[in-house]
Amino acid sequence: MKKIIFISIFLILNNCGYEAIYIKKDLNNISIREHILNGNESINRKIISLLNLKKVNKKDLFLYDLVLTSEKNRKVSSRDSLGNPSTYKITVSVNFKLKNLNTEVKPFKTKEFTKSTMYNNMENKFDFSRYEKEIESNLIIKISEEIMIFMNS
Question: Is the pLDDT reported for residue 56 higher than 70?
Answer without folding.
Answer: yes
